[in-house]
Design a protein that fits this description.
The chain is α/β, with parallel strands linked by helices. It has helices at about 20-35, 50-60, 80-95, 105-115, 205, 225-240, 245-250, 280-285, 305, 315-335; strands at about 5-10, 40-45, 65-70, 100, 120-125, 130, 140-145, 150-155, 160-165, 180, 215-220, 240-245, 270-275, 290-295, 310-315. It has 2 domains: about 5-190, HUPs (Rossmann fold); about 210-335, TPP-binding domain (Rossmann fold). The longest helix is centred in the last third of the chain and has 21 residues, at about 315-335. The protein binds flavin-adenine dinucleotide.
């Protein structure tokens, strides 16, 4: 069968809600579809007790033409073998021209397994997707050579696979309806080699800076004299999440999942407060979709000021306590009103 259409993996959160990256991929897929003579967009949802109607309506409203749902009690929690094998089998039956997966921990796991099983190429962590006018192949754009160059990669085997991080593309609804496609994957035939011995649950989305409205981020400038204590204090007052540069991560002030930038998370908060961060290209790559950026830096020539909506030139150890005091005052005034 000729490869046809775009297949998207729909990751859900622990409350069975579709992850935002899936809606972003669907929005981009609508653009790719137009360049591919309107080939169909199919979304694959794997899980347990899925509300068929809601999910199909929701995915349809972002552009899905068809939704394949594989639902089974054994699929309640993410299991690499079950999920990856089901997704691979669907891709084999289909077979699609393009496969798009969110570059989440789970998505990267599934995409790597599927591309190996399908013996095809996978371009990871893409920053843009397009269709080449001449060859009609997927053009997957991603940074290379330490972020100094951007490469357009054309995979000549099918399906052409790409992963994309959250917040790279915008998600937009459309007037569209999807239909359900029934697909019988025999889960009994999948040899599950994973036995869960102990399970701890963690609310990933509430800890994930990708979904934060306000972020206070610290850089090397804050990595001394309790600079990060001030950052955590301001974040708590603003109901914000804490992030930081790679320098802050390497010095142990934040975890890897709090690092923003090209090799960290791509974020799109309404407000990003960059404290003691110079504004290297690799850092900016992760924050450029922020609504507003406030930069605090004692070097008036720091590159971050070119991108900031509000720039405060000065010592963070003086400015942050004043900032925190102002937030306290503001809260007091609001409480009195
Ligand atoms: C392949 C590759 C991938 C990378 N990926 C990432 C990534 O994902 N994310 C990332 O962040 N970086 C990444 N980097 C590293 C990046 O190039 C920079 O080195 C890094 O972002 C710099 O971090 P910084 O701004 O905290 O430190 P610096 O560049 O050292 O800046 C510190 C800033 O703090 C200011 N400062 C110092 N003291 C004070 C004070 N008292 N008050 C106010 N301001 C003060 C200074 O003026 C300076 O501007 C990557 C690099 C490579 C090569």
């Amino acid at each position: 069968m000729e490869p046809n259409g775009i297949l998207i993996y729909a990751q859900k959160d622990e409350n069975n809600r579709i992850e935002p990256v899936v809606k972003e991929l669907l929005t981009k897929a609508r653009f790719l579809k137009e360049k591919l003579w309107n080939q169909r967009i199919t979304v694959c949802v794997i899980g347990e007790r899925i509300n068929y109607e809601n999910i199909i309506n929701e995915l349809g409203s972002y552009g899905a033409d068809e939704v394949i749902i594989v639902s089974d009690d054994r699929l309640k929690d993410y299991n690499k073998i079950y999920y990856s094998e089901i997704f691979t089998q669907i891709a084999k039956q289909y077979p699609p021209r393009i496969i798009l997966v969110g570059a989440t921990v789970q998505g990267k796991d599934i995409a790597a397994y599927t591309s190996t099983k399908l013996e095809t190429g996978l371009t990871a962590d893409c920053t843009d997707l397009d269709i080449d006018d001449k060859s009609c192949l997927l053009v997957s754009t991603r940074p290379t050579f330490g972020g100094k160059l951007t490469a357009d990669i054309l995979c000549k085997t099918f399906p052409q696979m790409a992963t994309v991080q959250q917040n790279i593309f915008k998600s937009e609804k459309t007037e569209h309806k999807a239909t359900a496609v029934f697909n019988w994957i025999d889960i009994d035939k999948i040899e599950n080699k994973i036995e869960v011995i102990n399970k701890t649950t963690k609310n990933h989305s509430s800890n994930d800076i990708s979904n934060a409205d306000i972020i206070v981020a610290g850089g090397l400038g804050a990595c001394r004299d309790n600079g990060f204590a001030l950052i955590y204090e301001l974040a708590a007052k603003l109901n914000a999440m804490v992030a930081g540069s790679r320098e802050a991560y390497e010095r142990g002030y934040i975890t890897k999942s709090q690092q923003t930038g090209q090799t960290g998370k791509i974020v799109a908060p309404k407000l990003y407060i960059a404290v003691g961060i110079s504004g290297a290209d690799q850092h900016l790559a992760g924050i450029k979709n922020s609504g507003k950026i406030i930069a605090i830096n004692n070097d008036k020539n720091a590159p971050i000021f070119k991108y900031a909506d509000i720039g405060i030139i000065g010592d963070l150890f003086k400015i942050l306590p004043e900032f925190i005091a102002e937030v306290d005052k503001d809260k007091e005034v609001k409480n009195e009103q």
